[in-house]
């Protein structure tokens, strides 16, 4: 019942409001050894409203490159092209670099995989969060301090005063990821891209972090792109799932309908996971077909 | 060809690093030919148990010994190391980046003074499903799954009866994970190996192991049979919260968050 309801709501919302993000025929290519280019994202199209969209694929499928291209973080040398890459009316590919810069971390934010590597090791957590805030919404340092504490409290940190004075190496992975989320949310973004935000965390901590993300996304009405290799996790968290293989979207499916997936790759990916209550020996493996990547 | 089956007996094992108790009085025994799992979250001491077993971490107290052999080797001695080999978590970090597969596989043979290298290397590669064509490649020329196969071949080239597996598939994609799990299972059936496998993924452990130990903060919480776990017959609330967590995210399950919170704060 609730599933149907959310589906209807998503439909209504996407019909009424223009999409937050429109991606049409996105391509990312990197120079190949010996000349020419390797396309790692090959014509990805989707629109995103204020919803939770999952992008799932294995390593090398182009899922992270898709997220990075939206933010303008493609590595130097990479070529990004698209028919449309629009974020709330702004043409991301042709807007001035300064505007892109102000969007990044301001209206579009990204949570990265491992807080151990994505937070600065030489700055206190509070100072890092405050830096993001000052870059996008300048305010007095007293105000900034208060906002930082509020942001840390919003991600479920019990003693924000103490945590804001710590360095990243002094906190656990789960705590670091909360700090990262606080940093990404402090400027009030409309679109949040989360690239494997919980892969480096334990299962129990993973759920806490997802719970926090879920609450913030629904409270603030943000759009969320959740990039992950974990099909099962994504299907329990997102409204809609794009399955990528070799740089293309091979299937787009409502998360609740995942068990009815049609594409043999999606089905194979679901099937090859060991299941607690249905042991199978040997496990079915994925038989990759050349036509999937054609 | 298969070596006589050997089990492992661990009694009151403690590992202390600079006053920090990583493993606190853990006991379990693995029957010859059995596959035994250890689960827990990071910091629970599960990997340290394995490292203590193969001599990479110091034993502070307790006893480990091999069972099922007539003359059990001294823990940490060359004879022990020849019987207990380990496969590490990250195939990107555990293979020497500047050595070819051939050299990587020749090293354990050289250390233990085993001749007949050519034939053994070819056979080891064959057994893990890689042809002789992989022999002179470097790790960076291999995919993650192929590297983990090399790591398994390196562990098995000494033909040890006991194999320690530290999260052998957590760095791999789901489809590659299935292939590696199948390979491990086939090798175990063929050689009568005993496995001790550490993982945070309950589904992977129950797939490969018959019994498993749940650890939390260096202590053993409970030992359950895989069949009991699959049927949700577990005793401790910690194991139950691990099981619920592995089922995925649930919006309605607010009680779960609270339970996990309470568990973590304890």
Describe the 3D structure:
The complex is a heterodimer of chains A (about 290) and B (about 270). Chain A is an alpha/beta fold and about 290 residues long. Chain A is built from eleven helices and eleven strands. Chain A has two domains: about 210 residues, P-loop containing nucleotide triphosphate hydrolases (Rossmann fold, 3-Layer(aba) Sandwich), CATH 3.40.50.300; about 70 residues, no CATH class. Helices cover about 40% and strands about 20% of the residues of chain A. Chain B has two domains: about 160 residues, P-loop containing nucleotide triphosphate hydrolases (Rossmann fold); about 30 residues, no CATH class. In chain B, about 40% of the residues lie in helices and about 25% in strands. In chain B, β8 and β9 form a beta hairpin. Chain B starts with 6 loop residues before the first strand and ends with a helix. Chain B contains ten helices and nine strands. The radius of gyration of chain B is 19 Å and the shape is globular. Chain B is of the alpha/beta class. The chains are: A alpha/beta (about 290), B alpha/beta (about 270). At the A-B interface, α9 and α10 of A face α6, α7, α8, α9 and α10 of B.
Summary?
The complex is a heterodimer of chains A (294) and B (266). Chain A is 38% helix and 22% strand. Chain A is α/β, with parallel strands linked by helices and 294 residues long.
Write the SSE topology.
The complex is a heterodimer of chains A (294) and B (266).
Chain A: H1 2-16, E1 21-31, E2 37-48, E3 52-56, H2 63-71, E4 79-81, E5 84-87, E6 90-91, H3 97-103, E7 108-111, H4 115-118, H5 125-136, H6 141-154, H7 160-164, H8 173-185, E8 191-195, H9 203-220, E9 223-228, H10 231-237, E10 240-245, E11 248-254, H11 264-271
Parallel strand pairs in A: 3-9, 3-10, 7-8, 8-9
Antiparallel strand pairs in A: 1-2, 1-4, 1-5, 5-6, 10-11
Helix pairs in contact in A: 5-6, 5-8, 6-8, 8-9
Chain B: E1 7-17, E2 20-30, E3 35-39, H1 46-53, E4 61-67, H2 78-83, E5 84-87, H3 101-111, H4 117-127, H5 144-156, E6 162-166, H6 174-191, E7 194-199, H7 202-208, E8 211-216, E9 219-225, H8 226-230, H9 237-246, H10 254-265
Parallel strand pairs in B: 3-7, 3-8, 5-6, 6-7
Antiparallel strand pairs in B: 1-2, 1-4, 8-9
Helix pairs in contact in B: 3-5, 5-6, 9-10
């Amino acid at each position: 019942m609730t599933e149907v309801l959310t589906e209807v709501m998503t439909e209504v919302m996407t019909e009424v409001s223009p999409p937050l993000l429109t991606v049409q025929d996105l391509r990312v290519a990197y120079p190949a050894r010996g000349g020419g280019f390797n396309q790692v994202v090959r014509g990805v199209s989707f629109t995103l409203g204020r919803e939770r969209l999952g992008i799932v694929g294995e390593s090398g499928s182009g899922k992270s490159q898709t997220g990075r291209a939206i933010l303008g973080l493609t590595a130097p040398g990479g070529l990004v092209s698209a028919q449309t890459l629009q974020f709330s009316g702004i043409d991301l590919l042709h807007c001035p670099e300064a505007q892109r810069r102000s969007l990044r971390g301001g209206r579009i934010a990204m949570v990265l995989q491992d807080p151990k590597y994505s937070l600065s090791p030489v700055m206190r957590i509070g100072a890092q969060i405050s830096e993001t805030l000052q870059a996008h919404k300048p305010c007095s340092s007293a105000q900034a301090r208060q906002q930082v504490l509020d942001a840390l409290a919003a991600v479920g940190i019990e003693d924000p005063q103490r945590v804001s004075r710590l360095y990243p190496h002094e906190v656990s992975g789960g705590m670091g990821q909360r700090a990262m989320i606080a940093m990404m949310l402090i400027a009030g973004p409309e679109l949040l891209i989360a690239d494997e935000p919980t892969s480096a965390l334990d299962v129990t901590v993973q759920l806490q972090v997802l719970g926090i993300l879920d609450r913030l996304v629904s409270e603030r009405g943000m759009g969320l792109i959740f990039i992950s290799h974990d099909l099962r996790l994504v299907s329990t968290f997102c409204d809609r799932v794009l399955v990528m293989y070799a740089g293309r979207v091979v299937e787009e499916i409502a998360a609740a309908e995942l068990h009815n997936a049609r594409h043999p790759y999606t089905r194979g990916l679901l099937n090859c996971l060991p299941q607690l209550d249905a042991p199978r020996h040997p496990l079915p493996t994925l038989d990759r077909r050349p036509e999937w990547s054609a | 060809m298969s070596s006589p089956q050997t089990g492992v007996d661990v009694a009151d094992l403690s590992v202390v690093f600079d006053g920090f108790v990583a493993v606190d009085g853990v006991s379990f025994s693995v029957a010859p030919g059995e596959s035994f799992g250890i689960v827990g979250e990071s910091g629970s001491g599960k990997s340290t148990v394995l490292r203590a077993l193969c001599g990479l971490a110091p034993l502070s107290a307790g006893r480990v010994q091999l069972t099922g052999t007539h003359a059990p080797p001294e823990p940490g001695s060359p004879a022990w190391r020849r019987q207990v080999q380990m496969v590490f978590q990250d195939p990107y970090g555990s293979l020497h980046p500047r050595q070819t597969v051939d050299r990587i596989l020749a090293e354990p043979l050289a250390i233990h003074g085993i001749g007949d290298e050519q034939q053994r290397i070819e056979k080891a590669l064959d057994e893990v499903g890689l042809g002789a064509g992989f022999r002179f490649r470097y790790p960076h020329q291999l995919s993650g799954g192929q590297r983990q196969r090399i790591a398994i071949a390196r562990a098995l080239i000494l033909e040890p009866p006991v194999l320690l597996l530290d999260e052998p598939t957590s760095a791999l994609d789901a489809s590659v994970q299935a292939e590696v799990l199948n390979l491990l299972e086939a090798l175990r059936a063929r050689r009568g190996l005993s496995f001790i496998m550490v993982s945070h993924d309950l589904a992977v452990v129950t797939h490969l192991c018959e019994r498993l130990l749940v650890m939390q903060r260096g202590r053993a919480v409970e030992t359950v049979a895989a069949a009991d776990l699959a049927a949700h017959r577990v005793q401790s609330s910690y194991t139950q919260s691990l099981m619920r967590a592995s089922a995925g995210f649930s919006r309605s399950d607010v009680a779960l968050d609270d339970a996990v919170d309470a568990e973590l704060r304890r």
